[in-house]
Automatic annotation (TrEMBL):
InterPro entries according to UniProt: 6-blade_b-propeller_TolB-like, NHL_repeat, TRIM45/56/19-like, Znf_B-box
All residue ranges annotated as the B box-type domain in the record: 10-53
Family annotation (Pfam families): ANCHR-like_BBOX, NHL
Protein's UniProt name: B box-type domain-containing protein
Keyword Cytoplasm: no
Coiled-coil regions listed: 155-211
GO MF assignments: zinc ion binding
Record's keyword terms, sorted: Coiled coil, Metal-binding, Repeat, Zinc, Zinc-finger
Amino acid sequence: MASVNNFCHLCEEEDVSNVAVVLCADCETFLCKDCERHHSRNRASKGHQTITMDEYKKLPSFIADIKSRCEKHDEKYDFCCKFHGEPCCVKCIKDIHKDCRDLDPLVEVLKDIKNSAKVSNLDKEFNILLENFETVVKYLNLRTATLQENKTVCLKEIRNLRASINKHLDEIEKNIVDDLSVEYNKIKLKYDHLTSEMENKKKSIQNWQNDFSKMTLYATDLQIYVGLQYLEKLASEEVGYLLNFQRKGQPEEIRSGTKLSPDLKTFVNKIKTFGTAVIQSSPLSLELKTSDECQANISFPQFLTIDQITPTLKKRLTIPEQNITPKIFGCQILPNDNILILDKANKKLVLFSRDGENGETVFIFEDDPNDLCYIKGNLIAVSFHALFQIFLIDLSTKMITKTIEVDDSCFGIESNGKILIVKLLGGTKSVFTLDLDGNVLSTFKVPGSRTIRIALCKDRIVCTDWKDDLVSCYTNDGVLLWTHKHENICEPWGITVDKHGFIYVACKGNGRIIVLSEDGKKSRTILSTDNGIAEPVAINIDESSSTLLVTNCFNGVAFVFKI
C-alpha cells in the first residue's frame, strides 16, 4: 500500500512526481493536492475515506499494511465473518465462508466503529493490563528490596555469631594464656634458682681443678697425699649431689598442647559450616484488576515437588494368554492413548485400545525384540540385541519401513521424534545418537557392564545399571553429571521422564517404582508390591497427560496410573 517516496500515484502514471498529501484507503492510492480535490468531487469516489500523510505515517506498520480489497480475489470487501473475525468478499463466501452463519454487511460493522463499545472496551482492557503489569513490576521490585534486606539481616546474624564466637574464644584463650604465664613464671623461678646453684658449683669445681694442678706441681708428697683425701671428699660430695639431682628427676616443664580441652579439638573437627541458607516461599499477595468484558486471568504456576507425586490407578491390562510365559521388555503410551506392549518371549507386539480392552497382536517378529519407543505419526522403533538391528515400523500399515544396522547388541532405545538414542552393550558399551536414516550423529562411552536402558531428560540422557544398582545422568556429549544410588533401588531396568523432569525407574529386584528428582539428589518409592508391582522391567510415561504405564515382566499384567 505504501509508496516509497509518497508521491501521487495518479501523477506518477503521467511521469510527474508530485508529493502526496492524502491516502485514499478505499482506492489504496496516494493523492496530491490537485488529484485529491478532483477525487473528492467525483461521484464514484466522493464517499471514500481519506487520511492525511501525517496521519498515515503515524499508523503502526501492521495497520498500514492492511488492504482494503481481498488479496486473494482482488475484490472489494463487502461482508464480515464474525466467526473468523475477518472481512471477506463475495468470492470468499463461496470458497471459505460457505458454512459460516454470522456474516454481516461490512458497512454495518464499520458504522461508527471508532465510537463503538468494542473500541472503548479494548482501550479499557489495555489500561487495565498496563496497570496490572505496573503492579507486578512494583511488587517484584518490592520483593527484590525485601530480598536484599533479608540478605543484610542474615549477613548481620552471621557476623554477630562470628563476633560472639571470637569473643568467647578470646576469653577462653586469655584464661589459658594467663594460666600459662603463671605456671611459666613459677617454673622459670625454679629453673633460675637451679641454674644459679649449678653455676656456683661449676665455679667451685673449676677452683678445685686449679688447686689440684698447683698441688701436683709444687706440693710435697705428704701434702699431695693429704690434699688428695680432701679433694676426693669434695668431689664425692658433688657426685652425690648430681646423683640425688638425677634421682629427683627434671623439674616441671610446659609442653605444647598437652592439656588443651578435648571439647575444643572436637569443635574444630566437627564444625564445618556456620549454618545453611534456607530459602522459604511465601504466598503471592498480589491483587490484579480485571474487566467485565475481557477477564485477564493471571496466575502463577504451581511447581510439583517429588513428595507430591502420588499415582492413582486408572486401569489394569492383561495380555491374552500365550503358550509361553510372557516377558514384557518394552511398553509405550501412544498419542491417541492406545498402549503398546512388547512381549520378548512370544516375540509379539500387542496393542491395547485406550479403554484397555481387547489386546490385539499387531506384529510378530522372527527374533527376540528388546525395547521399543514412539517416534512420530504412526512410526515406532524396536531394537533387537542379537541381530544388531533396529526396525522402524509403521503401525498403520503394520510394515517395517526401514532396518537400521548397528555395531553391537542394542538394548534400550528412545526418540524425540527427530533422532534415535540407542544403548549398545557387548564390547561397545556406548550410547549412539542416530538420525532416522540410521546415520551416526554422535557417540560416547558409558561405564558399567549392565547399563541397558536409557531415556531423554530435556537435553540430557539418563540410564540405569541393574548390576550396580545405579541411575546415572549424562550430557549429550557424554559428560557425567551425577549418579544416584539408594537402598531402595534394586536392579533398576526401565526408565522414563515426565514433563516436569522427574525420573521414574522400574526396579526389577524388589518390585518398586522409584521417582528421582531432576538433579538426582532425592528419590522416593511411589509404587511397590503392595500395588501389585512384580519384577517390572518396562515403564513409560505420557508427558501430555501425565499417564504412567508400569508392566510386570512375567505375569502379563500392566497398570495405568494417573500422576
